[in-house]
Amino acid sequence: MKNERKFDARPKVIGTHKFVDDYHYDGMIYGALIYSKVHHGKIRKITYPNDFKLSEFTIVKLEDIPGKILIPEPETDQPFFADKEVFFYGQIILAVAHPNKNILNNFVKKIKIEYEELSAITDIKETLDNKENTFGKQIIIDHRRNVKVEKNWLKTHSVYYTPHQEQAYLETQAMIAKYDEQNEEMFILGTMQCPFFVKEAVETILGDKIKSVQVETSEGIGGGFGGKEDFPNLLAGITALLSFKSKLPVKIVLDRSDDITITTKRHPARIEVETYTDPQTNKIRKMNVDYRLDAGFYQTLSPVVLSRGVLHASGGYNIEDVYIHGRLIRSNTPPNGAFRGFGAPQAFFAIESHIEKIASELKIESYQFRKINIFRKGDEFPSTQKISEDNLFDCFESIVEKSDYLTKYEKYKKFNQTHKDKLGIGLAIGYHGGGYTGNGEKVLDSEIKIKIDKKAIVTIYISNVDMGQGAHTTLAQLFSETIDHPFELTNVHIPNTKICPNSGPTVASRTIYIVGNMVSDLARKIKKDFGFDNLKNFVKQNKQIFPKEFSAKYKPDPNISFDENTYQGTGYKDYSWAACAVELYYHADTYQIELLNCWSMLDIGHVVNPKIAVGQAEGGVLQALAYGSSEFFYKKGFGRMHGFTDYTLPTTMDIPKLFIDFIHTDNEIAKGLGEVPMDYPAPAVRNAFFNATGIFIDEIPLIPETIFHAMKKEKKL
Amino acid sequence: MKISFTLNNKKVSIDTEPTKRLLDVLREDFKMMEVKESCGEGECGACTVLLDDKPVTSCLLNIIHVEGKKVFTSEGLSKKFLGKLLIDCFDETNAVQCGFCFPGFLVTSYHYLKTDGEANLEKIKVALSGNICRCTGYQKIFESVMLACLRNDSTGGKS
Ligand code: FES
Ligand code: FES
Predict the structure, then answer these.
(1) Hey, which of A35, A84, A418, A510 would disulfide with A435, CB 3.0 to 4.6 Å?
(2) What fold is seen in the domain A26-119+173-253?
(3) CA angle in degrees (0–180, nearest 5) for A423-A424-A427
(4) Any idea which ligand is nearest the CA of B41?
(5) Chain A touched by B126 (CB under 8 Å)
(6) Which tens digits make up the pLDDT trace of A401-414?
(7) Is ipTM beyond 0.95?
């Protein structure tokens, strides 16, 4: 537990750290994407403006693809370009490149595309409500245990909705492709989370026209949060095609408005929960969950989000009889993709809201109710995986104490009786499985490499990126701490598919949890194999051995298994646990909530670098609070949001005090941290509002409109 | 049209369209890559520079308005006492995440230190309210600026 400083902090503050748009290559030209401005339609005619020299432009469309037209994804169903029909606002139809940015922009503005518009499904709630829109493979987790529902049991039923959320990384999507005609090689440089996915996409679109593809990330990656997991595949494919055709280096940097319109977002969800609770014991005995995600028009990676979603869908409670049905819904909107939390924030919003509903119907305090039902050691998930620790319970108890929940709850109850404005405090719990779901890590088969040179300088080679989470500093620190080697002598190489082995994508909270633990294991093995005490001295005395490379592969635990058909078994080997309390003030005249405080208690196991960990958790918590309280996206159709003026992000003036704490840090394993802070704060906001006003809200964000409608529904207006 | 101004203490001039954005002039003509574009509409502050000692979003400013004025970018400020102090503080707290917003934060915090500099959280929040950071949750940025204010105080405001 040391607070080593980040490698890249100083150049980033000064601004000399390079992001994609800061790179230049000789002869480089600029590219732009032309996309559909209707939700569904047949393309009738494309007209290029006639006051430009068409021969100066490189234009690529579907028919220019020499390789395969579908982008490689867990579900390979999205083409790089639309063909004759477009299925969503934002679907790319063609791409253009030109040496001069201004000429390019003017040309692009004047391209006219005529459509025959067709009917489209774009209203989010209507789409999700209609089972007819289901597509793709459905997932069922059947943990029914023939529990007989008694007459006096309380049935609680509700439907919860969550909206799109924009990742809003500050560096927009950007890619450079540089074709080397002589060697038939394509070099890609970009802002991305998964260099090997990008490589595969470029190989796919160019097929056998190319001998090799090399992908490197830019020095800096200006935020990802999941948004740079799969969209870069599409963008790199198209940029490469432009470079291949023009035989020149091509750079595409999306402007904010294009980025917000065409890239992936968090999946909107509709989650229906039905529970049966025994009022004698206050135990939930039976639960049915219908979990639906709006995938957009293509499935792409939605099946994987769905699988994580259903595995988190019953929340942190021990229920004997559970049935979970997960499905994807199709709409005429861009495919939704990865976003921190990956299906879990939607699930926890529903469950944590529902718990409040049951408690209020039972007329007991929700704190007590949670305490009775929360996971304890020996309980089991609907997948039958056993809970091996009491850490969720510990997080919960400690957050109740830290936030002084019980005192405040009573105090605010009294305050609210005599005041028009209200005060509220609310709780929520959450957890996140580390790494890929089920057998995913086995299939990924990650590999790492470590090089030690003659001066005992250590370089770690991996394909995981540092997009701000501090992963590279933390990985170097893990190596350096494990065998007590100076941190200053430990580096991480910039991810490059030709130089670094494939240690898997930078997703699923796996970089430290999977790759980091591989780094520690390999460090230990190097030390043991050579039998040294001090690496630096050893290198000095044995110069002839160095430079030397070491590598290791991921070793799956042979004792765990997961059945991909029945969803029974070990969903995730380790879970990060969390609990939270949110305190807010409700301004009755304006229907506005003001967040005052948010406490989080997290169990992520070993905390390698506390300052980095706290910072990352704070960022995740704020994104989640905004998801619950302010970030507002399309309700109907796409294309009406243009940037940060209408998609408003929290500023320094809109945020509560954030308190982050870690528990059980004596664990040897460093577990996942990236996503868990996103999972629980949104329902805590909702629950604080519920405790403040007694008004039941079944959707986020809690903006004045949502509150106003809920009050109208409950006839409190 | 010829426009002359001072850029990071150096006199410069350029022949360009008067409506070209200051952001583009800095990035394209002067290769000052530290000035970042994120939203392009004055909302995020990633492109902030000092214009005659006041923070402005360079994506909203046409170069014609810069004639005869003084411009400082984050890199220019990083060489000054307060700039160095701030960088040390951002580094020490591990505040920096993706870093895309930070050159803008450096410029705005520099201006706060220079013009007020009180270690007062509410004031710091107001001063930084034009800069968006999507990664950090802002807490460590506040902590860093606070620390810089305290240290600057203890040096007797050497600036
Ligand atoms: S790019 Fe200028 S304010 Fe966002
Ligand atoms: S550090 Fe990424 S936006 Fe601020």
Answers:
(1) A510
(2) Aldehyde Oxidoreductase; domain 3 (3.90.1170)
(3) 165
(4) 1
(5) yes
(6) 999 999 999 999 99
(7) yes
